[in-house]
Amino acid sequence: AMEKSYVSVFLLLIVISCALAKDAGKKDSKDPSKPKLPQTLSRGWGDQLIWTQTYEEALFRAKHSQKPLMIIHHLEDCPHSQALKKVFAEHKDIQKLAEKFILLNLVYETTDKNLAPDGQYVPRILFIDPSLTVRADITGRYSNRLYAYEPSDISLLHSNMQKALKLLKTEL
């Protein structure tokens, strides 16, 4: 029974997010200069990087590759997510460093409460080490939204990525 309810919740989320996407799509369709690119797993966060498809796959890979996992929660129609995505994708050092991580970006919430230690806001970025522990100690600069980053925080995000990799070396 547990699995069945999980599936229905997931389907409900898909329906809700599609409804949102439809509204967003209407506005965009007036602009013919923007061709619709096919959606890849990167969703624009770094097309040349390798992205995992699901949270379960990401956890599995982090555990078996002994790489930390970086999870980006975002929404396509959220201007804050869009702004952060743009600077993230254009930041050469971050894109380079990201190759050392298992990567996952999500436009829906998982049922894992550990991924929303202080709420389900977007954009938020969490690091998980290969022992599958959420690094609650790697935070942004906002006390009310610990894992939120603004485009102006991109260098903090870069150093947090370095921190996630360093912690790994000292603790294993």
TrEMBL record:
Residues 1-21 form the signal peptide. It is found in: Endoplasmic reticulum; Secreted. Keywords: Endoplasmic reticulum, Secreted, Signal. It holds the Pfam family Thioredoxin_7. One of its GO terms (cellular component) is extracellular region. The keyword Protein biosynthesis does not apply. It comes from the Eukaryota. GO terms for molecular function: dystroglycan binding. Its main location: endoplasmic reticulum. Belongs to the AGR family. This is AGR2 protein. It comes from Hippolais icterina.
